[in-house]
TrEMBL record:
Organism: Streptomyces xiamenensis
Pfam families: Bro-N (PF02498)
Top-level taxon of origin: Bacteria
Coiled-coil regions listed in the entry: 160-194
Keyword DNA-binding set for record: yes
Name the UniProt record assigns to this protein: DNA-binding protein
Molecular function via GO: DNA binding
Chain segments carrying region Disordered: 207-226
Bro-N domain boundaries: 14-130
Keyword entries, A-Z: Coiled coil, DNA-binding
Organism lineage: Bacteria, Bacillati, Actinomycetota, Actinomycetes, Kitasatosporales
PROSITE patterns documented for this protein: BRO_N
InterPro entries, sorted: BRO_N_domain
Tagged with keyword DNA-binding: yes
Length: 308
């Protein structure tokens, strides 16, 4: 048996499956069709369009397990990425056509009404006459063996027409909103450019902005006339300090006495003392808590310390 003979015979749907699902759900739901011609649909898509709050609950309430499978099981030996063309998750829950119809029958949205009525008409006709057949379209295929074209049932056709009209109205309304949003964005961009031009003119007239400054703190009266050694001696007399704290204090004291403030970052102090940044940080916190120094501001992204 050659490869051509092993290929499954393509199956033709009497009703276009896209129109069929559109009439049932009111939306163009994504679809996966296996090489054998069986149609599967993402359960989340169907439940969302039918108004179900939770996909898992809807499946448990309305769809037996034999009519729903994860994508990996549906695709079987085929590549799910190749067949789906959507990069769907391998554990995505899918329902076949029977499962989709069960979700439709359990839906309470008025838009499902015409489709449900047609399904009832099919069942009643089968019960009364023993079969149900779609009328073939007036235009028959000319080529021998070509697929017969069937007329869509009136209930399904009416539902499709109404849904398409609603979709067109929604598309027109969305396009109008997008045009309004684009116009508003253009107006905002023009306004921002105008503001930028005004600010640019003001900046050009005023020249470059001065660098931020922190008012220099005058040395506290009790520290005036005292040298760094006296300040350190006073700290050591009332504090029990570690070598780390003392190294930081010895570095800060001369600048504090002379200039009244120090503007060094933790990394600068670490580089000057040979300590790690973490140990410098802990030492500064100790001096702050013991009221030896206080932070009076930030300049050039570094704290400014003065005597307490």
């Amino acid at each position: 048996m050659n490869d051509q003979q092993r290929q499954p015979v393509p199956r033709h749907d009497a009703i276009d499956i896209g129109d069929f699902v559109f009439a049932a759900t009111g939306a163009r739901v994504r679809r996966l069709t296996t090489p054998e011609g069986e149609h599967w649909f993402p359960a989340a898509d169907v439940c969302r369009e039918l108004g179900y709050t939770t996909t898992r609950k809807a499946l448990n309430d309305h769809v037996p397990e034999r009519f729903r499978q994860p994508l990996e099981t549906v695709t079987g030996g085929h590549s799910s990425r190749k067949i789906a063309g959507q990069n769907w998750r391998r554990n995505l829950q899918m329902v076949n056509l029977q499962g989709l119809l069960l979700l439709v029958t359990g839906c309470t949205k008025p838009a499902c009404g015409p489709f449900k009525e047609w399904m009832l008409d099919v069942i009643v006709t089968i019960q009364r006459e023993g079969s149900y057949s779609l009328p073939a379209a007036e235009l028959q295929p000319a080529a021998p063996g070509a697929t017969v074209v069937y007329a869509v049932p009136p209930q399904v056709a009416d539902a499709i027409v109404r849904l398409e009209e609603r979709a067109l109205r929604d598309d027109a309304a969305l396009a109008a909103l997008q045009r309004e949003a684009n116009a508003a964005r253009r107006e905002m961009a023009d306004a921002l450019r105008s503001v930028a031009d005004v600010l640019g003119g003001i900046r050009d007239r005023l020249g470059p902005a001065p660098a931020p400054r922190v008012p220099r703190q005058r040395t506290a009266p009790h520290a005036q006339g005292r040298g760094a050694e006296e300040l350190l001696a006073g700290w050591r007399e009332r504090l029990t300090v570690t070598d780390d704290v003392w190294a930081v204090a010895v570095l800060l004291a001369p600048a504090l006495v002379t200039d009244g403030q120090v503007n060094w970052s933790v990394d600068e102090i670490a580089a000057r003392t040979g300590l790690s940044s973490a140990r410098v940080h802990d030492s500064l916190r100790f001096l702050l808590r013991r009221h030896c120094i206080r932070q009076i501001g930030i300049l050039h992204n570094a704290p400014v310390y003065a005597l307490h």
